[in-house]
Design a protein that fits this description.
Elements lengths: L1 H4 L1 E2 L2 E2 H14 L2 H11 L1 H4 L4 H22 L8 H18 L4 H9 L3 H13 L3 H28 L14 H8 L1 H11 L5 H19 L3 H17 L4 H21 L1 H7 L1 H5 L11 H15 L10 H4 L24 H34 L4 H4 L3 H6 L13 H14 L9 H4 L1
Antiparallel strand pairs: 1-2
Helix pairs in contact: 2-9, 5-8, 6-7, 6-19, 8-22, 9-10, 9-12, 10-13, 10-22, 11-12, 11-13, 12-13, 12-14, 14-15, 17-19
């Protein structure tokens, strides 16, 4: 187990295992039940989206009931949550004034469960370091289980896009997002310690980055790879160690591509042809989806088309646009970019509020570095939102299900590293 092998002074997992177990035992029955329920998250996420959504929604609702009972709302004063709440409320306004108010209001209303879940993890379930250690263990087991499932699928039915265990093209999202905090920690440890811990961490990271490439999900692969490299750089790296790790990862991925021409094409020629701003032709669906969102934003620049409104409006948009917006629209369910989608569906005001939310989440995680720089969990926390919210990439729907379930799980854990939001003496206690 990772807890056994990753044992370093700054993050002694062997000792933390005992401390974490004792922490669980010390909780009252309700807190113990909810903590264990939260720790099951990485395994629930391996089942399907509806059970995962139910798990997250239940935690959000129970957290709100707990806050009502305890009259504890200090956490709402955080900038990231204020901006998320303002974005949600403006989205509801945009929905009721849209051409399809029932659909867009429904899509916008349920979105708030994701920021509330993040707050629940940050200020309640994951506020204790020993509990966060247990979640890392849970993540590690889930990550290895997912890797095993995908390797089995490759051996049985090799193909450019893997789908197990969901029957959908999303397993790479699990590796790229749900386990991203753990992966960043492993990479930081791998390049900072000439020990069994470092070697073991590097081997696990190398295995999962190869599996991530096997899924055929290019954006998720880049999120994981770039996030890992950045985490390696920012936490006490040793030049020889980081150089060795990067070289091994590059060689391993190249070896994979040499043996899999379908993956080589998908990550090579096909990827370059689908980069939105370098290929704005009619045959690029990625540019086409961005174009549809931009076009909608130009038509409703202030309030937008309402949450998820572009899926209904795209096909009806006028095609006579300026020369700087060439090509044709690809009308999918959303524009495949958070920033374009916000601009299109909640307008300029919603885009500004969204950017404030993204930026404040990154800053919240960044502050964790200065609270506990000697802990890789805290030192690498800001890498998670930075990688997940990087603007020039393909996203799932901002108001969707799978993408948000994966993303906000990782964001919640990253933000739990910073406890500086606490204001009252009672909260500190």
């Amino acid at each position: 187990m990772i807890l056994r092998y990753i044992s370093i002074p700054e993050l002694n997992f062997s000792k933390s295992w005992e401390d974490s177990s004792n922490k669980i035992k010390s909780l009252n029955s309700f807190e113990k039940t909810m903590t264990i329920f939260w720790l099951l998250g990485p395994f629930v996420y391996l089942i399907e989206r509806d059970p995962a959504d139910l798990w997250l929604t239940l935690i959000s609702l129970i957290f709100l009931l707990r806050c009502i009972k305890k009259k504890d709302w200090d956490w709402t004063s955080q900038v990231w949550f204020k901006s998320a709440l303002a974005l949600w409320l403006f989205g509801l306004y945009s929905a009721v004034t849209s051409t399809d108010p029932f659909f867009t209001f429904q899509q916008g209303f349920v979105w708030i469960r994701f920021p509330i879940y993040a707050a629940a993890a940050q200020v309640w379930l994951a506020k204790d370091r020993d509990i966060r250690i247990l979640m890392l263990l849970s993540m590690s087991i889930g990550m290895l289980l997912m890797s095993g499932i995908l390797i089995a699928e490759t051996l049985i039915e090799p193909k450019a896009r893997l789908t197990w265990p969901y029957g959908d093209l999303v397993p790479g999202g699990y590796l790229a997002k749900v386990s991203l905090p753990l992966f960043c920690i492993l990479m930081a440890i791998a390049v900072s310690k000439k020990s069994k811990a470092g070697i073991f961490s590097g081997m696990i990271g190398l295995l999962t980055i190869i599996v991530s490439a096997l899924t055929g999900e290019r954006t998720n692969f880049l999120i994981r790879a770039c996030g890992g490299i950045l985490a390696s750089i920012i936490w006490k790296p040793k030049f020889i160690m980081i150089s060795t790790l990067i070289i091994f990862e590059i060689l391993a991925v190249l070896a994979l591509f040499l043996n899999r021409p379908d993956l080589t094409n998908r990550f090579g020629k096909e990827f370059l042809n689908n980069v939105p701003f370098t290929n704005m032709s009619d045959n690029n669906p990625y540019w086409g989806s961005w174009r549809g969102g931009i076009q909608q934003a130009l038509i409703t620049p202030i309030k937008g088309a309402g949450p998820s409104g572009t899926r209904n409006s795209c096909s009806n948009l006028d095609t006579n646009l300026p020369n700087w917006l060439p090509g044709k629209n690809y009308c999918g369910n959303h524009p495949h970019n958070f920033y374009i989608q916000l601009f299109a569906e909640v307008g300029t005001i919603g885009l500004i509020l969204g950017c404030i939310m993204f930026g404040s989440i990154i800053m919240t995680c960044y502050r964790a570095r200065f609270k506990n720089f000697n802990c890789p969990m805290a030192a690498t926390a800001f890498v998670v939102p930075l990688a997940l919210f990087f603007p020039i990439q393909q996203f799932g729907s901002f108001y969707g299900q799978w993408g948000n379930l994966f993303t906000w799980f990782a964001i919640a854990f990253a933000m739990s590293q910073y406890q500086g939001w606490r204001k009252s003496k009672n909260a500190l206690n």
